[in-house]
Design goal:
single chain; alpha+beta; Bit1; 2 domains; 4-stranded mixed beta sheet; 7 helices; 48% helix
Length: 193
């Protein structure tokens, strides 16, 4: 900015009344104007940069760190990506919208449970890019067999119980239907499930 230029003159005129309202002496307002005009956008840009812009490549140490380390999964550190598996029952005849709703319940339910007890698992899942995989179970017995197998491998599980008869036909409300299973773990362990 140059004093006396057209841009500078227009800026001075546009903020003159505001500056006078603050009772700032006329001889002090050009530096004050510069501070106001430059400080706010610079701080905004700096904040945006810090929050949203990658600051460079990961260091070798960050690349080498395991994506999951914890006492689950038999206490062994695993260098694999962590993935969530959602298993839906086919025999309930759920609409695609209902399946999507149940998948949301299953993933959020498992996430909340794990985040409260062991945030390392959820952080590893986030670091892996929130990977998910969908599977199918023919009926409730098969769904429970998947859960038993996952628990046997040390994987945390979550079962969704649905009680809505309007969409899921032919099943009672009393006990709730086990409509979806979710479990999470490293891909190498999931291959065993």
């Amino acid at each position: 900015f140059m004093a006396g230029g057209t841009f500078w003159d227009s800026m001075v005129k546009s903020v003159k009344h505001w500056i006078m309202a603050l009772s700032i002496p006329v001889e002090a307002w050009p530096p004050f104007l510069i501070i106001i005009l430059l400080w706010s956008p610079c701080m905004y840009a700096l904040g945006w940069y810090v929050c949203f812009v990658e600051t460079g490549d990961d260091t070798e140490a960050e690349k080498a760190k395991p994506t999951f380390v914890g006492k689950n999964y038999r206490g062994n550190p695993v260098n694999d990506p962590v993935k969530m598996v959602l298993v839906v029952r086919e025999d309930l005849g759920m609409t695609p919208g209902k399946v999507a709703t149940q998948a949301g319940h299953a993933s959020v339910g498992l996430f909340r449970r794990l985040h409260e007890k062991n945030a390392g698992i959820t952080q590893a899942w986030q670091d892996s890019g929130w990977l998910k995989m969908i599977g199918q179970a023919a009926n409730e017995e098969e769904l429970l067999a998947y859960q038993k197998k996952a628990k046997g491998l040390g994987l945390p599980t979550y079962i969704v119980r649905d009680a809505a008869l309007k969409v899921v036909d032919g099943y009672g409300v009393e006990n709730g239907n086990r409509s979806m299973l979710s479990f999470i773990g490293p891909t190498s362990v999931l291959q065993e499930a």
